[in-house]
Amino acid sequence: MAQLIALEFHDSTVVVTLNRPDALNAVNSQMRDELITQLASLNADPGVRALVLTGAGERAFSAGQDLAEAARFQPEDIESWMQHQGALLSAVRDLDKPIVAAFNGTAAGIGFQLGLLCDVRVGYPEMKLGQPEVRVGLASILGSYLMSLHVGHSHNVNLSLMGNLITGSRGYEIGLISDLVSQEQVLPKAMDIAAEFCRLPPNALRLTKKRFRSLTQASFEEACQAVAAYHLEDYASGEPQQMMGRFLEERAARGQTKEKESSKA
Q1: Which residues have CB under 8 Å from 248's CB, separation 6+?
Q2: Nearest 10 degrees: Cα torsion 52, 57, 61, 63
Q3: Which of 34, 52, 120, 259 is the most buried (most CB within 10 A)?
Q4: Distance in angstroms (rounded) separating the CA atoms of residues 64 and 112
Q5: Mind listing the pLDDT tens digit for each residue in 3-60?
Q6: Is residue 261, in this structure, part of any structural domain at all?
Q7: Is 57 left (phi over 0), alpha (psi -120 to 50) or beta?
């Protein structure tokens, strides 16, 4: 089984790559497990001073939850799925070391949420980001909570209820992206920021991050509990299964059309 998380060590910085480029780095159970394990290990490694989180390929940081996996879930699966998802978000949130998101492409859904939990986000003007969960029948619970830490209520409501993806330029304007550069400069800029973090006193950074976590710990835990209840109601209605199934059918049809066109060429 191929590893879905790749690590590259650069002195005291580690680049952590979501490594499912053929699936737009969509998050599935294996990726959740691997990322949780790797982040815990890196957090305990005294030689690591900063992390950069990015995606493989040029199309996506992460397109979000793997819908082929989520479409198979039944109501009785929701609690364990959301516990796993919460553990993944906590693995990023609980890091004592600075982490920089290098948005190499689209960041949507849980992929977007992972970026929001990073300390700094680097993107480029043409990229797309947002919280499209309502478009596949899921209430935006954790995503809307995490956006509330970065943007005002009106922006949050619009992004959460409409489920539209916005450009990197717009994300920068409203505070979802920290640094805006050209696409080819996203990873170098993220590495420069991580290198600057490496030069700062690690204990002071650890304690500052600890303080920020303490300010929002109760609301984060409440959001993690709420998402299980809301998604259980989602799945009981049948909407997610229907919407995801339709999306997967349309994607398969597009793939068959491309194959036919390629065979004619």
Answers
A1: 67, 68, 71
A2: -150
A3: 52
A4: 7
A5: 999 999 999 999 999 999 999 999 999 999 999 999 999 999 999 999 999 999 999 9
A6: no
A7: left
Domain that includes residue 31, residue range:
5-242
Helix axes 78-93, 110-117, angle to 10 degrees: 30
Residue 167 lies in a domain: yes
Q: pTM here? A: 0.94
Contact 114, 124 (CB under 8 A): no
Q: In whole angstroms, give the CA distance from residue 137 to residue 43.
A: 35
Contact 42, 16 (CB under 8 A): yes
- Torsion, CA 33, CA 114, CA 160, CA 158, rounded to 10: -170
Supply the CATH number for residue 146's domain. 3.90.226.10
What does the block give as tokens for 106? Answer: 């689209």
Contact 118, 127 (CB under 8 A): no
In a domain, 114, yes or no: yes
Q: Two tokens at 107? A: 């960041």
Tokens of 196: 């600057």
pLDDT in tens, 67-101: 999 999 999 999 999 999 999 999 999 999 999 99
